[in-house]
Write a structure and sequence with these properties.
Blueprint lengths: L12 E4 L5 E8 L6 H5 L13 E8 L2 E8 L3 E3 L11 H4 E5 L2 E4 L6
Antiparallel strand pairs: 1-2, 1-5, 2-3, 3-4, 6-7
């Protein structure tokens, strides 16, 4: 499998292309790095390719907050300018300005 550069950045707010949720990116895998069981649980007609970046999100929807693992093909930039309400944003980020979160230095690698 070949890899390519990630389209989205750490601290960027994004939304899902199909499902009604948005979130802030806190980590990225250059290619799929979850279990085959997780991948196969996605309906085949919307199952993403494995040879693309996958993003870890602090996510939110109308029902609450959670973490999500989403393929690049299923993400869009969120241009609302609104912060994400996930309670862990303060643990990973030290500020929100101009629609983007700033990653805390101590959690970078």
């Amino acid at each position: 499998m070949s890899t390519r550069l990630a389209k989205f950045t750490l601290g960027q707010v994004v939304r899902h292309r199909v499902f009604p949720f948005r979130g802030v990116i806190f980590d990225v895998d250059p290619i799929f790095a979850n279990t085959d069981e997780w991948w196969e649980s996605i309906p085949e007609e919307i199952r993403p390719r494995k040879d693309q970046p996958f993003y870890h999100l602090l996510a939110e929807n109308d029902e609450g907050t959670y973490t999500a693992y989403v393929s690049e093909q299923n993400l869009l930039a969120d241009d609302s300018g609104e912060p994400v309400t996930h309670p862990h944003t303060g643990l990973m980020f030290d500020g929100f300005k101009n629609g983007h979160y700033h990653l805390r230095q101590r959690v970078t690698h």
